[in-house]
Design brief:
CATH architecture: 3-Layer(aba) Sandwich
Order of helices and strands: HHHEHEHEEHHEHHEHHHE
Largest sheet: 7 strands, mixed
Strand order of the largest sheet: 3-2-1-4-5-7-6
Helix content: 40-55%
Number of helices: 12
Number of domains: 1
Radius of gyration: 19 Å
Distance between the termini: 36 Å
Shape: globular
Strand content: 15-25%
Number of strands: 7
Structural class: alpha/beta
């Protein structure tokens, strides 16, 4: 798993840096849903709406947000579900400070990896994780075939922190195949360079890891939606170019433009895809003799 130092290397550049790139309302740093949206803010809201539906969030729910970012999910839930509480986990001290300073009445947050999070009482009614699974296994884990055991432990942990009726709403980038050419290999390298200590899962990784723990209730594959999402971030960077240059320098600006353009190409070619899934707790299907 990516260490706190590796997470902070990316996410703790500065909260204002990301405010100059991401949408103004949610600071959503993952793919939006563009079926009906015509703005980046609406695409983020539509993403949260789908994942709340996938996780069966209801009024009075207690929701665990694994990899909570800057608290966009809790902002959305606070506007759409009454008497609901959201507890976020992050390894970014800047994100922790941002959420605490926002003083969202429905949100709490702590600096913790999911492996270190104590089982609560009462347990959670839903788990949502958006763009966090990518950080659970390292590139070295994937090369050595250890990634599925790590994902299995995550799903076991989800079972341990939730009520028997709880669903998991998961969104993650997936890798669909080997690279077709040097250009795709280079673009993939750019993504791994930006996100040290991280690697992408395949659909089969997730399916095997969830077997006998969760069953797939609903699923969407929307990698094409990452193209307009990334373009919206590029467009905002261009609009704020002078400010980004003066505050963070030309090198960092160019690095992120190159990263966003490379990631966009990966989604355009189908080398990367995006997986949104509703996971329902699996019931025993066999009786075993002891």
């Amino acid at each position: 798993m990516a260490t706190q130092e590796e997470i902070e290397q990316h996410y703790d550049i500065d909260n204002e840096f990301y405010a100059l790139i991401l949408d103004d309302k949610y600071l959503g740093y993952t793919c939006g849903v563009w079926d009906q949206a015509d703005t980046i803010e609406q695409s983020q809201a539509d993403k949260f709406a789908r994942l709340c539906r996938y996780a069966h969030v209801k009024p009075n729910s207690k929701v665990l947000d694994v990899g909570c970012g800057w608290g966009g999910l809790s902002t959305y839930i606070g506007e759409n579900f009454s008497n609901t509480k959201v507890h976020g986990l992050t390894l970014s001290t800047k994100q922790l400070e941002f959420i605490k300073n926002a003083k969202n009445p429905i949100a709490s947050v702590e600096l913790s990896a999911w492996q270190s999070f104590a089982v609560p009482e009462p347990k959670f009614d839903a788990v949502i994780s958006i763009g966090c699974l990518e950080h659970f296994a390292t590139y070295e884990d994937s090369i050595s075939g250890k990634q599925r055991e790590i994902y299995k432990k995550f799903f076991d942990w989800c079972l341990s922190v939730t009520t028997p009726e709880a669903y998991v709403g998961l969104q993650t980038i997936i890798i669909t195949r080997l690279p077709n050419n040097i250009s795709e290999l280079r673009d993939s390298w750019l993504v791994h360079k930006i996100f040290p200590g991280s690697a992408l899962a395949s659909i089969s990784d997730i399916q095997e890891a969830a077997t006998d723990k969760y069953e797939i209730s609903e699923v969407s594959r929307i990698g094409h939606d990452y193209v307009p999402t990334l373009q919206a971030w590029i467009d905002k960077m261009v609009v704020n170019k002078n400010e980004l240059f003066s505050m963070y320098g030309e090198e960092l600006y160019n690095q992120y433009i190159e990263y966003f353009e490379g990631a966009k190409r990966c989604f355009q070619t189908g080398y990367f895809d995006l997986y949104q899934v509703s996971l329902k707790r699996a019931l025993p299907t066999r009786i075993f003799k002891t």
